[in-house]
Specification:
The protein is an alpha/beta fold. The chain has one domain (2-169, 177-202). Helices cover 32% and strands 23% of the residues. It is built from 7 helices and 10 strands. The chain has helices spanning 2-8, 11-15, 18-21, 29-32, 122-149, 155-158, 178-191, and strands spanning 34-36, 40-46, 51-55, 67-70, 77-81, 100-103, 107-113, 160-166, 195-196, 200-202. A 6-stranded mixed β-sheet has the order 1-5-6-7-8-9. The longest helix has 28 residues, at 122-149.
Length: 204
């Protein structure tokens, strides 16, 4: 039985040793990941479930609150619901956990949804952006990366890593806003990884 379960785990997860690295953080990676080769998926923060999920279709009015996953080459792509699922233990969550990661054999995107924000005032968006960045970086730098390193895996050299803060696209919070550009430059200079405010990405 164990052998069959192991065979079902995608190569992208196995090569990063995520099951072993995160086994004491909450629910097991094996029981939580979702995989698909669909060419279009909508990832979102599911308020009913209490964690991130994805679907091939969503209602038109909900699209603005999703992260659109483009998968034109139909590669195997994986959703890792982190907050309240894979990373849910009270000790490990201290400092913040971002919502999910989306993984292929070549790329890993850490995603934090702030889609419940309804005011696009600069102060509000700025505060929520800072919160999201703190959650994203803590999850990568303090939780996942060091645990993978302890298993002999360097995430930074194994996959192409980036970070996304997702607001409701109707609020028009984009990469081109001066304050967002400043945040992106600051994040890149400090952490050596790109940060985006786009509501979609094409994966390879």
């Amino acid at each position: 039985m164990e052998q069959q379960q192991d065979k079902a785990i995608p190569e992208a997860i196995k090569r990063l040793r995520l099951c072993a690295s995160l086994k004491d953080c909450g629910h097991s990676v094996e029981s939580c990941f979702k995989q698909s080769s669909a060419k279009l998926l909508y990832a979102y923060d599911d308020e009913v479930l209490g964690y991130s999920d994805w679907n091939k279709t969503v209602t038109p009015e909900d699209v603005s609150r999703t992260f659109i996953v483009h998968n034109d080459n139909a590669v195997e792509i994986i959703l890792l619901p982190l907050d309240n699922r894979i990373i849910s233990g009270p000790v490990v969550t201290k400092g913040g956990v971002n919502d999910c990661a989306i993984l292929t054999e070549r790329q890993m995107s850490f995603v934090e949804f702030k889609t419940n924000v309804t005011s696009n005032s600069e102060q509000n968006i700025g505060d929520k952006t800072d919160d999201a960045i703190a959650q994203l970086w803590h999850t990568y730098n303090e939780i996942i990366s060091p645990r993978c390193s302890s298993k002999g895996i360097s995430l930074a050299t194994s996959v192409e890593i980036d970070f996304f803060v997702i607001f409701d696209s109707n609020l028009d919070v984009t990469n081109t806003t001066a304050s967002r550009l400043d945040k992106q430059m600051e994040f890149l200079e400090k952490n050596k990884f790109p940060l985006f405010f786009d509501n979609e990405k094409s994966f390879i």
